[in-house]
Amino acid sequence: MAQFTQVDLLQVTTCLESNPKALLEDLLTANPSVAFVRFQWVDYAGIVRAKSLMVESCRSLLAEDNFVRLPPMALHCAIDSTLLPGTDYPGTHWLVPDWSSLRLSSNPKALILMCGVYCGPTPYSLNSKWDLCPRGALVRQIQRAEDEWGLKFLVGFEVEFQVMKQADRRGDGMVPLSNGLGHFATAGMLDPCWSVVEECAEKLRSMGVRVASLHPEGLRGQYEIALSPSSPLQAVDELMLVRSVLKETFHSRGGTATLSPKPMAAGGQQMNGQHMHISIQHANSDQEEWFLAGILKRLPNLWAILLAQKASYDRVAPWMAGDRIAWGTENRTVPIRRIRPDHWEIRGMDATANVYLALAAVLSAGLIGISNKAPLTWPDASSSKADIQDDPLPRSLSESLAKLEDSSCGLDQMLGERLVRHYIDLKRYELSQMEDMGSEKARNLLIEVF
């Protein structure tokens, strides 16, 4: 461990607690069974990873203004935990915690803490050593919006998931555990899994997460939990907590809750999305249209970050992620549904995305639109008089990665050229790994991870 300055820390968090020591001690006093603090981050594969410190080590770390050292692989792992070829093994990565995210986990013995990742040998290197951090990328866009235009955002998520179980005693394959009728049917609430969904919602509420609603979704055995809007960083932190609670609670009951985009075997029609709601605050009507236009123009480039696995592209269809560049007022057949002029639902995202990076990319696209005063040339697809343009979206991860590689969209300037290049390289390597393992093993891996 080595010392970092407060200036370094503020590069990856905008909501630093003024007294993290007091925050930690208050939580430990209220929860005397806590023995560990889990320092968590989300890598480019969208996987939540963690290093746990004993409480005593965490106290020492805070007393010395130190941070957590890792091997130089925090942002270099593919979904199967193999490392991107060419990874530079000498060096160090550092977990830089946002202490305001500290809270009790669903495990009464552990606290969790979300972190940024500093990639460099020492914390005193150039600021560019933050340039691979997805959380840092989101912080930069939030700060840019406020500094240059006085804009703030509220963000919320809809979490769709399926409950699965092992197909047989050998543990080969996964099949649905829940079979409750979907689409809001009260009959679906008679399935035994529904009481566990309610238990998860109660746990989340006790942990400070504002759950707005929950209901049976899809055809059979799928559920949805919708979260109330929060500031962007807090919203993503809470989403990671929701995933953890779902996974851990159902695992303790012998099931597997999965947010994988297509958990069913080939031919299954039911799929999971993770819709993102964005409200832009303090904007005028022109800025709102420019923001939307910026996102729409770059939607094919964003697709690689929002839909980050091969299986994600089975959702590129109406009523799911959408299949063409379009928006519409209360229209769920297109990628962007307008709920009101300053509130949009981004339907083209699922749980395979690194959500810090995905939100950073969407905000970047919108801010480019504002900066360029981009005209909104796409009509409201909900209007009977709309002349809908035929602008198809990428239908594969390979195609969308090629779109993201096109620097003319401007996302690399906003997010950082090194970050975008690293993301593309890792995703292409990961795609080859997934194809090599075969469709059934790949499906089971996505169920396990997401």
TrEMBL record:
InterPro entries found in the cross-reference section: Gln_synth/guanido_kin_cat_dom, Gln_synth_cat_dom
GO molecular function, one term: kinase activity
Keywords: Kinase, Ligase, Transferase
Pfam families tied to this protein: Gln-synt_C (PF00120)
Domain annotation GS catalytic: ranges: 134-450
Taxonomic superkingdom: Eukaryota
Protein family membership: Belongs to the glutamine synthetase family.
Protein name as it appears in the record: Glutamine synthetase/guanido kinase
Source organism (scientific name): Dissoconium aciculare CBS 342.82
